[in-house]
Amino acid sequence: MEGAASNRSTDNGDSWTLIDGGLTNTYVAALTVSPSGAVFAGTWGGGVFRSSDNGDHWDPVNTGLTEPFVPSLTANASGDLFAGTDFGSGVFRSTDNGDHWTPINDGLMSSNGINALIATPNQVFAGTYGEGVFMGARVGSLRDSLEIYS
User: Fold this and answer.
1) pTM higher than 0.90 for the full model?
2) Is 6-148 a CATH 2.130.10.10 domain?
3) Per-residue pLDDT tens digits for 105-118
4) What is the tens place of the pLDDT at every residue in 9-54?
5) Which residues 6+ apart lie within 8 Å of 34 measured at CB?
6) DSSP of 16-46, one letter per residue?
7) CB 56 within 8 A of CB 63
8) Which of 61, 73, 100, 113 lies in the 20 to 30 Å Cα band around 36?
9) Alpha-carbon Rg of the chain, whole angstroms?
């Protein structure tokens, strides 16, 4: 799917329209929707892009994100966004709708990519490429720590 960008259907998949206005990297590896309704695209080499108009226009939102290869994204009901990156860079969290990203890798011992993410308001699970599943739990403040889940 390299170079495929994103497509949108307004008729339950009967037809599709290419939506890539402003999407400068069209290898989209992950998509998620925040509780605010913004759509986020994780790209292979271009970081994260945000659209607030259902994909008609995309803006890069990579402040603090140190790795541009983003194979997984998720959002929780509280509005936190999580980006799983490749090449051992781990997981990043945004608490401001993607404007800024902070690494949350305390205890994450993976030198590989984060290929799958799922989040609740209090936990995030990160599936790695060949090194298991890690879980992060919110402890008091917004500080998360990822550790092996068994």
Assistant:
1) no
2) yes
3) 877 777 888 999 99
4) 778 778 887 777 778 888 999 999 999 999 999 999 999 999 999 8
5) 40, 75, 79, 81, 97, 98
6) -EEE-TT-S---EEEEEE-TTS-EEEEEBSS
7) no
8) 113
9) 15
